[in-house]
Design brief:
Largest sheet: 7 strands, mixed
Helix content: under 10%
Order of helices and strands: EEEEEEEEEEE
Structural class: mainly beta
Number of strands: 11
Strand content: over 45%
Length: 115
C-alpha cells in the first residue's frame, strides 16, 4: 500500500522559512521521482518542485532561488525547504509520485504566509 505523509506546514510571516517533509512507504523510493505541488484557494494544483530518482531538480519559476527540494533515500523522505516566503506561497502543499502509471498524492499540509 502506497502512502505519502506530509508534515511541516504552518503559519509564518513573509520573509520566513518552513521545511516540509514527505515520508513515503510502499514504493521503490530511491528509483522514483518525487514532486511537491501547491494548491491555492480557488486555483488549480500546480507543480512547485521536482526531484528525479537520480537527484536532478526542477522548480517553478516563482520559487527558483527560494525553495530547495531534496531527498533522503535512506529515510524514504523528500523535503521542501522554503525560504524568503511570500504571501502568494500560501496554499496546501501536496507530495506526489507516480508508480507504474498510477498517480499518488499525500493528504496535503497547509502553508499560510502572512504579510
Amino acid at each position: 500500500q502506497v502512502q505519502l505523509v506530509e508534515s511541516g506546514g504552518g503559519l509564518v510571516q513573509a520573509g520566513g522559512s518552513l521545511r516540509l517533509s514527505c515520508a513515503a512507504s510502499g514504493i521503490p523510493f530511491s528509483q522514483n521521482a518525487m514532486s511537491w505541488y501547491r494548491q491555492a484557494p480557488g486555483q488549480q494544483r500546480l507543480l512547485v518542485a521536482f526531484v528525479s530518482g537520480g537527484g536532478s531538480t526542477t522548480y517553478a519559476d516563482s520559487v527558483k532561488g527560494r525553495f530547495t527540494i531534496s531527498r533522503d533515500n535512506a529515510q524514504n523522505t523528500v523535503y521542501l525547504q522554503m525560504d524568503k516566503l511570500k504571501p502568494e506561497d500560501t496554499g496546501i502543499y501536496y507530495c506526489h509520485t507516480v508508480v507504474h502509471t498510477v498517480l499518488y498524492w499525500g493528504q496535503g499540509t497547509q502553508v499560510t504566509v502572512s504579510s
